[in-house]
Specification:
The protein has helices at about 1-45, 70-100, 105-120, 125-140, 145-170, 175-180, 185-215, 230-240, 240-270, and strands spanning about 60-65, 65-70. By secondary structure, it is mainly alpha-helical. Helix 1 (about 1-45) runs antiparallel to helix 9 (about 240-270). The model is unreliable at about 1-5 (pLDDT under 50). It holds the Pfam family BPD_transp_1.
């Protein structure tokens, strides 16, 4: 009986926990968007600017020979998602390995990981991209896509490493000793005992890093990669519609990051991650 009464209540709490960040963020975005639209409309009237929103759909999709095809902006979004997805996987791998080196007993490992984190965190991402693209890329024979993924992964990996390190150091020492007493090797100890606890604790900051990575992917447009930002810039150059195009690009980025936040909230629910 207790289970039957508590079931719907728990489900409602779970639904609220998942949907609350999304709808709260969406409400804030709508309020800010309404204010910005009012501000821009007032400014446009002062500049005698004519809105041309009716031209935007042709840069999202087009209809030809009985089929719908993605236009420039959606093609750019596809490239952005490809770069972000590959970079995110590589970022997690770099961050985890670097964090394990930071907490290891190896002096060389700690020194290398510390140097990497400090070097990346204290230099601008744009400078790192230029160095990889113009200096190391030609020497190593890296393509633009590979260079972009590598630059983003190295940059975000440094911050992610510190998040992993904080998660590792927060695990009670007794968990390591208990793993050893069970006869688990180091790999199995981290795989079955330590890392599941770490992931639960660091999921919120990891989500922030993932969102930051998606937004930072726009900087790779300096390498002439036809991502969403580059496509937007090209359309602005051809049409002289800066407001309509950049607002559309920002809206697409917003949809991607809000979706990512929603997935992270769902994952937090599945892992029963503490909300505060």
């Amino acid at each position: 009986m207790v289970h039957n009464i508590a079931g719907p209540s728990c489900r409602l709490k779970a639904i609220g926990r998942i949907s609350k960040p999304f709808f709260t963020g969406l409400l804030q975005v709508i309020l800010v968007a309404v204010f910005l639209l009012w501000l821009l409309d007032t400014g446009a009237e002062a500049m005698n600017y004519r809105w041309q929103w009716y031209r935007i759909p042709q840069y999202l999709w087009f209809f030809e020979d009985g089929e719908w095809f993605p236009a420039e902006l959606l093609e750019g979004l596809r490239v952005t998602l490809q770069i972000s997805a590959v970079s995110l996987l590589l970022t997690l791998a770099i961050g985890l390995v670097t964090a394990l080196l930071r907490v290891s007993g190896s002096v060389i490992g700690r020194g290398v990981s510390w140097g990497y984190v400090e070097l990346i965190r204290n230099t601008p991402l744009l400078v790192q991209i230029y160095l990889l693209y113009f200096v190391f890329g030609p020497v190593l024979g890296l393509e633009r896509f590979t260079t972009a993924v590598l630059a983003l992964s190295l940059f975000q990996g440094a911050y992610t490493a510190e998040i992993f390190r904080a998660g590792l150091t927060s695990v009670d020492r007794g968990q390591f000793e208990a793993s050893n007493s069970l006869g688990l090797c180091a790999l199995d100890s981290y795989r079955f005992v330590i890392l599941p606890q770490v992931i639960k604790r660091i999921l919120p900051p990891l989500t922030n890093e993932a969102v930051s990575l998606v937004k930072n992917s726009s900087i790779v447009s300096v390498m002439a990669i036809f991502d969403l930002t580059t496509e937007g810039r090209n359309i602005v150059a051809d049409t002289a519609m800066p407001f309509e195009v950049w607002f559309t690009v920002a809206g697409i980025y917003l949809v991607v990051t809000l979706t990512l936040s929603g997935l992270a909230a769902w994952l937090a629910y599945r892992l029963d991650t503490p909300s505060h």
